[in-house]
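Kindly review these tokens for lecture notes.

. . .
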Amino acid sequence: MPRRASRRRLLAWGGAAALAAVGTTTAAVVLRDGDGGSGDGASGGAEGRKEPRPPAGKVVWSREIGEVRYGGALVRGGKDLYVLDDKGLTRLDAETNTLRWTYPEEGLQSVRARGDLVYVLRDFLSAPELIALRVAGGREAWTSGLLSRNRHRPPRPLDAPRSELEGSRGLFTVSDDVTCLLTYAPYDTRWERRTAMDRPWRAYGFDSRTGKELWFHEGRAAGVTGVDDAGGRIAVAAAANEPLVVLKASDGTVEAEVENGARRPQAHPGAAGIGYFASDKRIEAVDLATRRTVWGRAAAGAAVTPRATDGLVIAAVSGGITALDARTGRERWSRSGFQEIEEGAPPLVSDGLVLVSGPEPGGSGSGVWGVYALDVRTGEAAWAVRVDSASEMSLAAARGGLVHVCAGRVVHTVRGAA
């Protein structure tokens, strides 16, 4: 199955909002252990052996929703499923499809559930707005308000240059104590650089519970390509050739600037553990606190899980799904014919299963028929379930034995065989 071109970018990395390109289009798989050699794991696929038909899962419920091609999301929070489409934000009971509430606003972008609040970003032409909604009832708890009047931002004089204008795009992070809203203007193309008018990126800190304005920081005239929140720090990445700016979450002051660090905003002094990254040509394991590369291996056009599960890192490559030993990078198993459900995002892993799209069991070995659950330890199919319009699947979320996928404009919730 050819690897699909990515049209989406990863917005959440390891529980904090981040933006990082994780997949590219390639024509063939290239995976080598270290600098060469073959993996020691078992391979599987349509070629060489006949696939046994896996146990059948079932569709628990289906629900028609709005358009999700431009900024849609499926997010699990506790027993709830949050559906973000062009009509607004909807909270559903994940098990029963019972409607809890809707927040019918246009221009909503990303969503994050934490505790008894759910946070959503509203995209305006003038400036983004961050909104905190109460899980119980969906009412607004607080909003970021008019940013030009934020009490920590220096007042803007009437004859201020256009660089004082707020950037029209936004990202945010949420921790127990501090929520940070980042605004910026895009600088990706020549036209965008010309119209950005030297507007800098800006960071606004708010009390996560009350929305109290805590601090303000102004960065360089650049767009934001990624952000991470960990260990009391907020790491902001601008252009790839810029340093990674690490802010103290408590007061917004700069703790450090990491040279050449913008490529991996998740690796900074506040982070801990080993993270896994994919570029156009390689997969690498990196000590996040020190930014030291633990191991690397060739991999053309991969999307990889940012953290390990059961000692394995799961990668989607152009030929299928591969599991790598988290300590060494050696291949443990590989399954051809399967791909990640959400284009450009890492494979979805939940409850010890790798949830992927795949062809019809016993069929031609091509096309997208439905959802498969592969045992994360072995790669064997634990169950599979047919999904209507499966070739249009674009979003996925999973928790507590339920898998939610968006196919076209319908959300399907499925579970495995009893």
